[in-house]
């Protein structure tokens, strides 16, 4: 028996998230099915990040066990030949049999993209959130700094979260603008359900002038979901990288 690690990229538009659901197709479900066909044995992957419905990834991590003699480095090519075009394996390699992607020290990097212009751009519609309301990026940058460090992010997670603790560490966050595209880039050791999308939605409220930058500190202190801004739509969020520390 050996364990193989996959680096998985996907367009999440047509999927109900990573984790297998009874109400639609998921990334995990497609991987399990295609891997089982390829190896002629039942395969169930373990994913590092259970991205939500509609969220994209440039690099998510999955591992699985197999008795197959297919060289680990050849798995990416063999699996890509079976996968739909909106899911692609970027790399495959053997790891130790006790390696678990959710039980080791790691850092995730997410980006939330906002297309801010008078009119929407069709080529951006699947990978960014469009708003015609002008956003003040300098105010958003000032507000973002309050997220850095270790805080209780109860105000910035779904009320349906099942996490034992809502304390999380944000290592870095930046807000930058390139033409009509505003990108919020966040890195941290772990994120709560909908946390990055609620952070993005709240920063947009600051950018619109509905909240002051310093209000972020007040919202964190409140530990109340209703104190924060709306949950930004899933289409703008992409898991950029998964780093093991």
Q: How would you describe what is shown here?
A:
This protein is an alpha+beta fold and 245 residues long. 21% of the residues lie in helices and 31% in strands. Strands 1, 2, 3, 4, 5, 6, 7, 8, 9 and 10 form a 10-stranded mixed β-sheet that branches.
Compressed to H and E, one letter per element, the order equals EHEEHEEEHEEEHHE
Q: Segments where pLDDT lies below 50 for 5+ residues? A: none
Structural class: alpha+beta
**Number of beta strands:** 10
- Rg from Cα: 19 Å
Q: Name the helicity range.
A: 10-25%
What sort of overall outline do the alpha carbons produce when their principal axes are compared? globular
Query: What is the number of helical segments per DSSP (H or I, 4+ residues)?
Result: 5
Quickly list its features.
245 residues; alpha+beta; 10 strands; 21% helix; 5 helices
Q: Short summary of the structure?
A:
With 245 residues, the protein is of the alpha+beta class. It has five helices and ten strands.
